[in-house]
Amino acid sequence: MKKTLEFKAHDGEIEDIALGPDNKVVTAGRDFQCCVWQQDQLVTGLRWHENLPGIPDKAYRYQACRDSGTFLGLGTVTGSVAIHIAFSLQRLYYVKEAHGIVVTDVAFVPESQPGRELLGGHEAALLSVAVDSRCKLHLLPSRRSLPVWLLLLLCAGLIVATILLLQLAFPGFL
């Protein structure tokens, strides 16, 4: 193996590292940060006190990370588990103290046939393992979305309403 790239990702030790799509790398460090990298450039990151305001960042830190391509799963030293959108790090799911103590690893259920059966109607499933000798399954509910036909119907209604309002405001419009 040859080293192809070296850069300072965190102040202190790196707790976990995960490879994501498009050559992105996710790191969780002892400096209370979780970062997404493209080569040696920081794409985006989470700091504990920005993600969960009101909780002192020196008491907690990210411990484990996994990137499914769409989602980023995180475990903490406090036993909490979270799922974020991978590209924006918007939090979709959070369970405070899902485990009694340190989450040592997280993993997404693969998108194979047995994995899809386990998912049911959920968007993602994350397994978490902790020092409390428990393994837990976290199911991310499917996010609600409008059917395309309803969206087109709403757009058509908006256009008709705009034309009618313009006709009312300016009688000789059409």
TrEMBL record:
One of its GO terms (cellular component) is endoplasmic reticulum membrane. It is a single-pass membrane protein. GO terms for biological process: endoplasmic reticulum to Golgi vesicle-mediated transport; protein transport; regulation of COPII vesicle coating. The chain crosses the membrane at residues 146-170. GO terms for molecular function: guanyl-nucleotide exchange factor activity. Keywords: Endoplasmic reticulum, ER-Golgi transport, Membrane, Protein transport, Repeat, Transmembrane, Transmembrane helix, Transport, WD repeat. Its main location: endoplasmic reticulum. It is found in: Endoplasmic reticulum membrane. This is PREB protein. It comes from Tichodroma muraria. The lineage of its organism: Eukaryota, Metazoa, Chordata, Craniata, Vertebrata.
